[in-house]
């Protein structure tokens, strides 16, 4: 289990969530931290940010956010990744796609059952070769 996944118990509905100040050791000893992305709805998020292409191959990256609602809410969401994808809501695995594929934003459809208060979303994108996107 990678460090962000080790914190899934903290990502239950209303829980504190992961330590966003944590630092991790990545591939080849690279320092890895959480960083804010800003507004990314309906956008492609690129993970191949290292100048050394070998750091962008056979790698994984994580996205984390919260969704706060006043009452129980259900929404349908489409998402996709290049390549594999694991997606959790409140610590529950909803998508487990261990595949080699190009980015298609409609590849995975999921129904999010949001609870009143803070809900935690975690996505893991796994990269082999080529594009590294969500």
Task: List the keywords.
two-stranded antiparallel ribbon, mainly beta, globular, 134 residues, 4-stranded antiparallel sheet
Give a short synopsis of this structure.
This protein is mainly β and 134 residues long.
Describe the structure.
The chain is mainly β. Helix content is 6%, strand content 40%. It has helices spanning 3-6, 53-56, and strands at residues 23-25, 31-33, 59-69, 73-79, 84-89, 92-97, 108-114, 117-127. A four-stranded antiparallel beta sheet has the order 3-8-5-6, with no helix packed on it. Strands 1-2 form a two-stranded antiparallel ribbon. Strands 4-7 form a two-stranded antiparallel sheet. A hairpin with a 2-residue loop joins strand 5 and strand 6. The two termini are 21 Å apart.
Mean pLDDT, to the nearest integer, reads: 91
Instruction: Please give the largest β-sheet.
Output: 4 strands, antiparallel
Order of helices and strands: HEEHEEEEEE
The coarse silhouette is: globular
Number of helices: 2
Class computed from helices, strands and strand pairing: mainly beta
Low-pLDDT segments: none
Strand coverage percent:
35-45%
Oligomer: single chain
The Cα radius of gyration reads: 15 Å
Percent of residues in helices: under 10%
Please give the alpha-carbon distance between the first and last residues: 21 Å
Count of β-strands: 8
Q: Reading side by side through the largest sheet, how are the strands ordered?
A: 3-8-5-6
């Amino acid at each position: 289990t990678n460090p962000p996944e080790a914190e899934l118990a903290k990502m239950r509905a209303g829980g504190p969530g992961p330590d966003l100040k944590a630092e991790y050791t990545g591939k080849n000893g690279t320092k890895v931290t959480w960083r804010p992305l800003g507004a990314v709805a309906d956008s492609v998020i690129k993970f191949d940010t290292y100048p050394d292409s070998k750091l962008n191959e056979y790698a994984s990256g994580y996205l984390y956010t919260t969704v706060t609602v006043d009452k129980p809410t259900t929404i349908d969401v489409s998402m996709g990744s290049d390549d594999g994808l694991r997606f959790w809501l409140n610590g529950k695995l909803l998508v487990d796609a261990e595949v080699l594929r190009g980015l298609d934003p409609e590849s995975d459809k999921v129904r999010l059952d949001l609870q009143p208060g803070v809900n935690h979303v975690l996505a893991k994108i796994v990269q082999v070769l080529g594009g590294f996107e969500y």
